[in-house]
């Protein structure tokens, strides 16, 4: 057994030039279902301001980088770093809140973790990262496993050929410097938390495994006597003849299929409408689904529902629904820092529930997977988006590819979640021909990956005169739902909300994807005094009344649930590097406006 493993290892070493390998494999579906070892916990780290550990003094990548994890072998050896003598940090986390020296730091930090492995003849090992912000390179035992760009989506490497029996070392170089051609770009209104911000796992898979599978309830057809659930799956290899079975015990539904030459299967399950409980905010019913491949089996919890639009309405399970939403950043409920657990998600979503929400906008990038899964259990619908935000480098092909990859991986991770109903591809982007091409392509790509959900993007009011606000955006043709952000009462037209009228010339549902204003919790005064809770309260009273006049309004996600960290918010004693538009403070205290929105939602 051992012998076999080491043969593979030697072959791999012979063909791969040092440092130039790419072991990345397409994202595995439902990683939590597999046997895995968590690599969370203490990791040693080295802050590397000038990337001494990667480039030589001529700025060429060096063979002697920190990824070697070198140790002096002889007394005279010169090695100017030592992971094991460097401090440790809890992973997952952002470094900004773990080490006070790194609060404002944007640059490179190296991380190191050791783990034990045993040779396995009949299994492969994937190294899975929930997210690393932003640019990261990973080495296993001194060999590069891959390079990943984009701070909010998961990725995995097949490291079976890089590991050895006994102690193994993973080194991760993380760089969160901002650049104009990145996604997001150089400026954005949230904290650029750096680090290995989500879970790391070693996942055991069979050599042939289910790379992806999809279950989806077909749209209701009045003539059909049965409801249809489509099922498809893809192996990681193009191998025919494998048995794939899908089984939903509670519905007594089972189907066995055999893979074709592409390594894929597809089939349909039929169920009597009366038997199937649909997922909805009132009844977030999830069914256990077992999917087996040959002799291995994994389980998921899946809900069934339909989502579509009819003229200006959004229909969930065929019925019109008003989306009572709130925007949320992926930040911890108490203070700043990246949220990274089911507990964090539960607290944040609990506040949303208290507000009366049935919907959340997870802004401005894909959130932690637990956020989506918790929301699904709690009956909360989700808008999920990628960080194509403000001034993207529209003409740069690499920027497009990057955005497209992030979109692909967001959809790959969550396409079996019943509560996700909207993929949003951009936020407040400046109009131009190049932007239209970029976003048009992204929208079409999203639809090609998933034509069962709605596509949107947060647009802006494009013209306002005599208190008439107009929306005119060429991207209208690509979206199912017209969404826009507006800040009447805060950035513009303070006191004029009652006079506002709206012209939205599209026969599509409308979501106001942002509105709001700032208040410092506990600061009280007149309603025209900026930053008081009363100012924010009045803004919510006037804005909600104004929104009631928008024809075809199908939902709203005010900005924002909780005060969040932003380097753009520098006003001393008020902001102190927090955007204060939260309905709850950074410590979770509810402001007066919270209750205005709650009351409005009670009536909706
Ligand atoms: C916006 C952005 C959001 C900002 C918000 C604000 O329009 O979409 O990211 O945080 O305004 O507070 O200005």
> How many distinct beta strands?
34
Q: Which band does the percent of strand residues land in? A: 25-35%
* Spans where pLDDT lies below 50 across 5 or more residues: 1-19
Strand line-up across the major sheet: 22-23-24-25-26-29-31-32
The multimeric state of the shown protein is single chain
Shape: globular
Radius of gyration: 25 Å
Mean pLDDT: 95
In DSSP terms (H or I, runs of 4 or more residues), the helix count works out at 7
- N/C terminus separation: 64 Å
Each distinct ligand: (2S,3S,4S,5R)-3,4,5-trihydroxy-6-oxo-oxane-2-carboxylic acid
Q: Which structural class fits the helix and strand makeup?
A: alpha/beta
Residue share in helix = 10-25%
| Main sheet overview | 8 strands, parallel, barrel
Describe the structure.
An eight-stranded parallel beta barrel has the order 22-23-24-25-26-29-31-32, surrounded by four helices. The chain is an alpha/beta fold and 604 residues long. 17% of the residues lie in helices and 30% in strands. The protein has seven helices and 34 strands. The N terminus is likely disordered. Helix 2 crosses helix 3. Bound molecules: (2S,3S,4S,5R)-3,4,5-trihydroxy-6-oxo-oxane-2-carboxylic acid. The site of (2S,3S,4S,5R)-3,4,5-trihydroxy-6-oxo-oxane-2-carboxylic acid has 9 residues, from loops.
